[in-house]
Amino acid sequence: MKVSKKFNLNIRINFILVLIFIYTLSNGQNLVPNSSFEVYTGCPAALDFNKNAIPPWYCPSFRSAAYGNACITNSCCGVPLNLFGHSYQLAKSGNAYATMEFITNYGQNQRDYIQTKLLDSLNKGRCYYIEFNVSLVTGAQYPVNNIALHVSDTSIWSINGRAISVNPQIISFGNPIINDSINWIKVGGVYVAKGGEKYITIGNFKDDAHTDTLKYLGFQGGDYYVDDVSVIPLDSMQLKADAGRDTTIVKGDSVWIGSRLCGLTNVVWYDASNNVIDTGAPGLWVKPTNNTFYVIEQ
Questions:
Q1: Among 169, 221, 173, residue whose Cα is nearest residue 197
Q2: In this predicted model, what pLDDT tens digit does every residue of 140-150 receive, in sequence order?
Q3: N or C: which end of the chain has fewer CB within 10 A?
Q4: pLDDT per residue as tens digits for the range 122-145
Q5: Residue 236: phi, psi to the nearest 5?
C-alpha cells in the first residue's frame, strides 16, 4: 500500500514553522530493555552507567556516561536541572535520560558509549525500525555529527576510552551536525538484519579528525542527552510517509523537506506538477521560487 504526504511551502518575508503529523509507532514489541532508562537500582546523589545502576545498560569503556533522573536532588544529575544547575532539559518521556560526550573538549579521541543486550536476537532478512533521541546539552562547546547507533552480534568495547572503529548502521541521513538544545531530535532508520545480532551501542564511532563540529562558547565538550531507544520489527508497526514541516521561507532560501531516516529507500518525491524530482531519499533540499507544494510517496 502506498502512503503519501504533502509538504506545503509558501514564499514570505518571515520564516515560520508549523509542525504537521509525521509518523507514529504502533504497538510493535520494542526489543530494547529499559528503553528510556526509567528502571534503576537506587537513587544516590549521582549515578553512572558503570555501576550496574541502570540495568541492563552499561558503558563498554572505563569512561562513563552520566545518568539523570528526577529522583536525584543533587543539581549535578537531576531532571530537568543538571550539570550543577547549568543545563535544563525535560526527559523525552518519563523522568530519566543518559548524558554522553560524543566528543571531548580536550581531544585525544575520547568517547562515551552506552550499550545493552537486546531482549531477543534479530532474525536474518527481517527489517527493524531503530531509533533513539538526542538533545544538545545547554552549554555544550562542540555540537557534532556522527551521532549513531551500532548493531552487533557480540558486545564491542572501547580501548582506553577512545573511539570504537566500526561502521554504525543507524545515523541521520546526510549525517548533519545536531545543534538543537531545546527539542529532542530523532536519529533513526530501517535496518535489515544479518541474523543473530544481540547488542546495540550508541556513540560517535569516528575519530576527531573525521568528526565535524561547531564551536560554541560552552563549558562542556560535545555533550548530549539521550532518551527513548527503540528496536522494533518493521512488520509489527506502521511507518508513515513523512513530508516534514509546512514551512514559510524568504524567496531565494533553500529548505530541507522530509525526514532524515537512514535505510528508507522506497520513496518517490513529486513537485506540484506531479513530476518526479527525486527517488530513494527520505528527504532533500529544495529552493522554490514561488508558492508550491511537494509530495512524498512511500
A1: 169
A2: 889 999 999 99
A3: N
A4: 999 999 999 999 999 998 889 999
A5: -110, 10
Alpha carbon distance 175, 196 (integer Å): 27
Nearest residue to 32 (alpha-carbon basis) of 113, 96, 120, 98: 120
Please tell me the predicted confidence (pLDDT) of residue 38.
Answer: 94
For 245, the grid coordinates are: 514541516
Beta carbons within 8 Å of 239's beta carbon, 6+ residues apart:
23, 129, 190, 264, 298
Integer Cα distance of 251 and 13 in angstroms: 8
Q: Are the CB atoms for 37 and 91 separated by under 8 Å?
A: no
**Per-residue pLDDT at 18:** 32
- Maximal C-alpha separation, the chain: 61
Residue 213 C-alpha cell reads as 563540529
Give burial (CB, 10 Å; 0-12/13-18/19+) of 182.
Answer: exposed
8 A C-beta contact, residue 202 and residue 149: yes
Three cell numbers, residue 290: 514561488
**H helices, E strands: number in the chain:** 0, 20
In angstroms, what CA-CA distances link 165 with 5, 75, 89, 171?
38, 35, 31, 15
User: Among candidates 77, 76, 54, 50, which has minimal Cα distance to 64?
Assistant: 50
Three-state SS at 10: strand
Beta bridge mates, 82:
77, 87
Q: For 5-35, give the DSSP string.
A: EEEEEEE-SS-EEE--------SPPP-STTT
Beta pairing, strands 255-258 & 246-249: unpaired
Return d(Cα 181, Cα 70) in angstroms, integer: 19
Task: Retrieve residue 209's grid coordinates.
Answer: 579528525
Q: Please state the φ and ψ torsions of residue 229, each to the nearest 5 degrees.
A: -100, 135
